[in-house]
Amino acid sequence: MFHIDKTVDTNGVGRPTDATPIAAVIDAWAEARLAALAAEAGELAARFFERAAQERARRPRSEWGRLGVRVRRPRSARAAPGAFAIEWFTRRWVNPRAAGARTFTTYLPRGGGDRYPRSAFAGVAQPWEAELAETLEGRFAAIRRLARSVTRLRRVLREHTKLEGRLVAEGASAGEGAD
User: Fold this and answer.
1) Distances (CA, A) of 23 to 31, 55, 110, 155
2) Is residue 14 within 8 Å of 20, Cβ to Cβ?
3) Which of 5, 30, 76, 128 could form an S-S bond across to 154 if both were Cys, CB 3.0 to 4.6 Å?
4) Which of 27, 25, 23 is nearest to 13 (CA)?
5) What are the helix (H) ranges across 10-93?
6) How crowded is the C-beta side of 162, counted as CA atoms within 13 Å?
7) Closest among 133, 31, 123 to 80, alpha carbons compared
8) What DSSP designation does 11 have?
9) CB 22 within 8 A of CB 160
10) Whole-number pLDDT of residue 4
């Protein structure tokens, strides 16, 4: 009988005698894939800020804009390992020239899909910011879809592992009484 607790050669990662449970291999892959997706999203966010800085340098202060994007890990203890969110926000400064200057952040609503709608940027972003955000949002949406798919795979794997464990336990207890 084959089940999820069977082991596999880790494809040259360890010695040929090192066998790893399939569930552990898939879980490690999922965590590594989420880390790679988060890194890619972080690079795109950095590109947004670089481009925004270039635009601000060549525009009058009245056209600077307040839009930003963040890739952040959830703070919840229940969050899945490797989970992250890509969020657009606006900033507002209070007393920017005073010693007690403060920045307030307001996150834009994404809605139900993987992509922020154009309307989310309307009224809160300069036209050049909205155009740049819209360009990046295509890739961000793809990253969100992939991350959700990896997370879903991991969740299904864990559910399956529990079912396999129950089946093995039931088989062991049924075998004890059948002498």
Assistant:
1) 12, 48, 33, 11
2) yes
3) 30
4) 25
5) 22-57
6) 5
7) 31
8) T
9) no
10) 46
Residue 65 to residues 50, 57, 91, Cα–Cα distance (Å): 14, 12, 9
Tokens read off for 38: 């988060």
Dist. CA 117–CA 111, nearest whole Å: 8
**Predicted structure pTM score:** 0.79
> 157: which 2 tokens?
């794997």
Cα distances from 103 to residues 47, 123, 162, in angstroms, run: 22, 19, 47
State both tokens at 177: 């009484």
**Strand partners for 107:** 89
3-state SS assignment for residue 72: strand
By residue count, the chain amounts to: 179
Report the C-alpha gap between 36 and 40 in whole angstroms: 6
Tokens found for residue 169? 């336990």
Q: Print pLDDT tens along the chain (179 aa).
A: 344 455 555 555 544 445 567 888 888 899 999 999 999 999 999 999 999 999 999 999 888 889 999 999 988 877 778 889 999 999 887 877 777 778 889 999 988 889 999 999 988 999 999 999 999 999 999 999 999 999 999 999 888 888 888 888 887 777 665 55
